[in-house]
User: Fold this.
Amino acid sequence: MTAASQKIYGENQTKKTKFCRNPFNNIKVFVVCHGLLQLSQLLLSGYLKSSISTIEKRFGLSSQTSGILASFNEIGNTVLIVFVSYFGSRVHRPRFIGFGALVVCAAGFIMCLPHFIMGQYEYDKSVASVYSNMTDICQPHQNQSPGTDQCLTKNQRENKDVLSILFMGQILLGIGGVPIQPFGISYIDDFASKRNSPLYIGILFAVTVMGPGVAFILGSAMLRYYVDIDKLPASEIVLTPSDPRWIGAWWLGFIVAASVVALTSIPYFFFPREMPKEQITEESEESEESAPGLMDVFQNNSDTSDPVSLAKFIRVFPKVLLRTLKNPIYILVVLAQANLSAMICGLATFMAKFLERQFSITASFANLMIGSVNIPGAMAGIVLGGFIMKRFQLSPRQCGAMCLMGMSCCVLLGLPLLFLGCSTQQFASPQADTRLSVGLWHNVSECSAGCGCSGSAFNPICGADGVEYISPCYAGCQGVTFNYTENKVLNYTRCRCITSPGSGGSASPGSCGSGCSHLFLPFMVLSCLAGALASTSQTPSFMLILRSVNPAEKSLAIGIQFMLLRILAWLPGPVMFGSMIDSTCVLWGKKCGAKAACQYYNNNLLRQRYIGLQILFEIGALIFFIAVYCVLRHKDKVKAEDENNPEMEKLNENQENLKVVPCREREAAA
Assistant:
């Protein structure tokens, strides 16, 4: 054995000894830890979307405001993501990931603070119990003021404090998440073997898709508990999750998710800045080549081998950005993905609320359906798309055709969803938006006059006439029957507004419901299939981006892609859907005389606009994929013509000779 061989053998033995001594020098351990961290991070960021409708009801927010809140974490992420590429090779990446995870953890704990600041949740004087429900029935000659200036001022101050805290938490959540995925992927790519690196990164992407599903399942579990479970004994909690006034323990999920993030961040403070390269065979080691990174791109563009300064990075970045955006395939695919991402934003943020309102189901059950049906369907679509690409070795043109077919089928399956839903139940209230509530709303101002009803009352009851009244007081009910054993209301009697023959003017507590539960199953099946078919375009569209750019600029192209998706879809998407949902509200709640969360929507308009906006984005993606396919087909046609043209073949041969002659001359001279 030569001295060089002995040296290499000794180094390998030293590496093996280090692996045995310190598990944090093993890239496989890093992959496991990073998978757990990404899962917990997405669990926390996705949990807000699973509880968005509950937060709206608890703090009286509009859907537009909650949409802005949902997209706010993208602001810090969008601003900082480009500079992550610059600092990526100059810092202790595992440690930065650990610090970022701690910021995410702090954001989670901040998001739950409003629960402890606001105090106990109140039912606006309509608690369904033996002791307090008498305050919400018709009591003549009693004047209940809907609110005072002092109450309004206090309510506005509390809402401002709550929103400030939630927005601060969202910004920190975005900032903390910046280094986690980019640094993790680059760290794995640097120290894993070239053979195993794609496998490890594929595992991380699979976990990324699982995260939102776990978040919705966590939301389903947490919203089954009453919001003030920490402040009231179980015997005093008389509402059930099916009651329209029920507020689930939205804050509890943030504590659980933030705690998990804190635990998964610990190992990152023990990983080294650089670890030994993963052990590979000698044949593979000889063929191993380092993939060009972002710094290589900038060094190639600046014609220097010196380290890239921050000033040079900022100066060169616009040039590379402009060259990338001039690529027709790249920009068309990114625009198609932007439409898909905007659709997904609307689904992820407001789908649970849509199902609640459309089919009269609980928030917990809606989250469970999304987490266990829709998101696994999307995962299956992504896996199927990747399998088809690998099995048939698709060309770029075939990838475009696959995206085109997937989106076409998605649009066809999405169209019937416009007609699968429920109409708004007939409801009675002293006021509603007459433009949107034609045929839905009954004015009860006359029959409930003199009852002294609270302007902010919301305790729905279902009258014997099939009409839902927003409170027993507004139905003119003067009597109530209790079950003293179970401490709950059985019935309301002598209701002046209920004139159904033979009913005696009676009503039962709770909502009448929409009465079309039989449509829920076909709706979920079609929406799951449509989502799965749309997801089949994820892998081929991503590969089109990688194959359409210069190999030295792939990492930058991906960074620009995600930056554009944030700007074009993830930031405005939730706000657009939230504003659209607000436009279908027919009766806004009141708190201290000010507008609170919406109480009733026009379900037909809600379904048409919510599903219609999704289909509009799907059609937009389809149009861009058609353009991609046409460009690719044109390129293939031009290439085929060039290959069949004798003059072009001769020109290519001359060019090859020009390249070969200097090499032969140098060989002869040598």
In short: The chain is about 60% helix and 5% strand. The radius of gyration is 30 Å. Residues 125-133, 281-307, 658-670 have pLDDT under 50 and may be disordered. The first strand starts at residue 427 and ends at 428.
